[in-house]
Amino acid sequence: MKIKLNGEYKEFNKDEMTITELVKELGIKAPNFAVAVGMDVIPKSEYDTFKIKDGDNVEIVTFVGGG
């Protein structure tokens, strides 16, 4: 599977994967992040079931606090 992730193409040895699987594969440990696939922001409640497929455009944004 090949997707566009935050503007860069990435390849994975799967035909599809959930957002949760993708986040684990990428090693994202930030507690607060948002995911959009195409133009749709995916609710956190769907991360375990939403399937990312070959050719999808995925954006993952992490939030950083500070003052």
From TrEMBL:
Domain of life, per lineage: Bacteria
Matching InterPro entries: Beta-grasp_dom_sf, Mopterin_synth/thiamin_S_b, Thi_S, ThiS/MoaD-like
Residue stretches spanning the membrane: none
NCBIfam families: thiS (TIGR01683)
Record protein name field: Sulfur carrier protein
Organism: Hydrogenothermus marinus
